[in-house]
Design goal:
The complex is a heterodimer of chains A (about 45) and B (about 230). Helix content of chain A is about 90%, strand content about 0%. Chain A starts with a helix and ends with a helix. Chain A has one helix at about 5-45. Chain A is mostly helical and about 45 residues long. Chain A is rod-shaped and about 65 Å long. Chain A contains one helix and no strands. With about 230 residues, chain B is an all-alpha fold. Chain B has helices at about 5-25, 40-65, 70-100, 110-130, 135-150, 150-160, 180-225. Classes of the chains: A mainly alpha (about 45), B mainly alpha (about 230).
């Protein structure tokens, strides 16, 4: 293994993990907003 | 996730795999820095996406001021948030390159310092959006901050072009002595392509989320009015 291989790999790993976590967070936030909106709309229609 | 986003995400992932193949298995070692130079192919694309994201924030902020269309404000805010993510990655990958090469994590050099200041400006932009409650006022203040803050982008870009800097000299658009061998340039462009397409996916997802959040806010306001 060349010198600094794992160091360079870690740098790429930081970027991959960060952008994947960010995308997952956006998806979760969107799903939660959709759920909340659905509840609010059904409450409003029921009222 | 919509089919366009799936296609874009697949394109981005394929380009990222190609980048990893090129970086770890194909391109030769750079003469002076050796293996550690390979950080360049992810560090520069992150910086590029940060610049693009903040530029989109400034443009959409300007369009919001001209039209008062809340969707322009959503695009501006979404892009600023993503710009912060990628500039944070620049501020992480840069010191991880510097430690083995310079022997230090950080120095108050013009390129590094101006990047940190740019990051702080857009962090302030996002904090401002959280602290101003009234929507129109928040959007106007954010648009103005986004436009003025964008001045940091050319300062970061030109920093080590106009002043002596410890940061490596620019290899693309850096004058007569600059330039990359075709295979190094191709690898860099694959990284730029991958992260730019990923930025578009993130931006579209964030704007969709913002539209939903605004719809919730409007319903809650209407509900409050009904109960009053």
């Amino acid at each position: 293994m060349p010198d600094h291989f794992w160091w360079v790999f870690a740098v790429y790993g930081v970027v991959w993990v960060a952008i994947i976590l960010y995308l997952a967070r956006l998806s979760a936030r969107q799903a939660e907003a959709e759920r909340q909106l659905e509840i609010l709309r059904s409450e409003r229609n029921g009222a | 996730m919509r089919s366009t986003d799936r296609i874009l995400l697949t394109l981005s992932a394929a380009a990222m795999l190609a980048l990893c193949y090129l970086v770890f298995l194909y391109i030769p070692l750079e003469k002076t820095q050796g293996y550690i130079q390979k950080i360049f192919y992810i560090h520069v694309p992150c910086a590029w996406v940060g610049f693009v994201a903040f530029t989109v924030t400034a443009i959409m902020g300007g369009r919001y001021l001209a039209t008062r269309d809340p969707d322009h404000d959503r695009w501006a805010a979404a892009s600023a948030e993503i710009g912060i993510v990628f500039t944070t990655l620049v501020l992480i990958t840069g010191p991880m390159w510097a430690r083995p090469v310079w022997g230090i994590w950080w120095t108050w050099d013009i390129r590094l310092t101006s990047t940190l200041v740019l990051w702080l400006i857009y962090l302030a932009y996002l904090i401002l959006r959280q602290t101003v409650a009234e929507r129109d006022r928040r959007s106007v203040l954010a648009a103005v901050t986004g436009i003025i803050g964008w001045l940091g982008v050319p300062i970061v870009y030109l920093g080590n072009r106009v002043r002596a800097s410890q940061h490596p000299a620019p290899v693309v658009g850096g004058g007569e002595d600059s330039g990359l061998a075709p295979i190094f340039l191709a690898t860099l462009l694959v990284g730029v392509f991958s992260l730019t397409v990923f930025y578009i996916v993130l931006l579209r997802a964030r704007v969709r989320g913002a539209r939903l959040e605004d719809a919730i806010e409007e319903l809650q306001i209407a509900e409050g009015r009904d109960h009053a």
